[in-house]
Write a structure and sequence with these properties.
297 residues, alpha+beta, Deoxyribonuclease I, Chain A, seven-stranded mixed sheet, five-stranded mixed sheet, 5 helices, 23% helix, 33% strand
Length: 297
């Protein structure tokens, strides 16, 4: 990258960061966190398992409530349309009227667990993490992550773990969603409970989600200094040092904003043979879907 290209990348990243601040400044979020309830459902008409292995997809749903819109856009994305496992962030529904996650799982003929942790719109909209799987989902658990006072748009952060009875035996899953405007040290501390638990797991394991790993140094959770800290490399290194693979290391950006190379979403497997991976644009979301296919004997 030339000095001119680097300068323009930095300007675009500053512009995106300021846009992000203005966009979310008006959003109201609770500043206290409680133990989330885990909702679950089993589909009695599950789709047949894949003959070629196991495909895991991670996608930020951007709090989209319309199941019809989600299904329409997923069907347009052939590379992920028949995935076996979905790790979903910002999964949202209105418990009193719209059961988005339960309905989505039913339409896809998948089992699901859903842990709503943020409550918006006067408590009417529940947002959190979900796991959908064509295989039985066992032992779902919530892992509390470090809470940061973000001055505004403060959110409760968790990881959602579960075990699936995969085609070749159990596979452990961790779905994570980290804070945006935190320092590199804070980001690594926030993911540490997941890394520590994952290190003790002997069976195959997949960690995925929205790590919000933009290469920005945030000052006081408000002032962005682009390219001062390399969050994406640090996140990858932490997993690689613990025996995980990084199939998405050379993939294209996972969020399309001002043509910036922002890689926020990741999937890190261990104990599984991955054969292909990619990034797929999903129209309703501001994030792209990331996916990895595994060869299961």
């Amino acid at each position: 990258m030339t000095s001119s290209e680097f300068f323009h990348h930095r300007l675009r990243l500053i512009g995106f960061a300021l846009f992000l601040i203005l966009e979310i400044a008006a959003s109201g979020y609770a500043t206290s966190c409680r133990e989330p309830e885990i909702l679950a459902g089993t589909d009695p008409f599950q789709a047949p398992s894949s003959l070629t292995g196991l495909q895991v997809v991670s996608l930020n749903l951007a709090r989209e409530e319309s199941v019809d819109r989600i299904l329409h856009d997923l069907k347009q994305a052939e590379s992920v349309a028949g995935a076996d496992v979905w790790l979903l962030q910002e999964a949202a529904e209105r418990p009193d009227s719209v059961r988005t996650i339960a309905d989505l799982a039913r339409e896809l003929k998948l089992n699901y667990v859903f842990a709503p942790v943020d409550f918006l719109d006067g408590g009417k909209l529940a947002s959190g993490l979900a796991i959908l799987s064509r295989y039985p989902i066992l032992e779902p658990r919530v892992i509390p992550l470090t809470w940061h006072n973000m001055r505004f748009h403060t959110r409760c952060r968790i990881a959602l773990s579960a075990q699936i009875a995969g085609p070749s035996g159990p596979v452990h899953l961790y779905n994570v969603h980290l804070d945006t405007r935190i320092t590199l040290t804070e980001r690594m501390n926030q993911i540490m409970p997941v890394l520590e638990q994952a290190s003790s797991v002997k069976e195959p394991i997949v960690v995925g989600g929205d790590f919000n790993s933009a290469d920005v140094r945030w000052v006081g959770n408000l002032l962005p200094l682009p390219y001062v800290q390399n969050h994406s490399n640090a996140v990858q290194r932490a997993f690689l040092e613990r025996g995980f693979a990084s199939p998405l290391a050379r993939s294209r950006p996972t969020i399309d904003a001002l043509k910036l190379p922002l890689h926020l979403d990741w999937i890190f497997p261990r104990g599984l043979n991955w054969v292909s991976s990619g990034v797929t644009t999903i129209r309703f979301s501001d994030h792209n879907a990331v996916w990895v296919r595994f060869d299961m004997p």
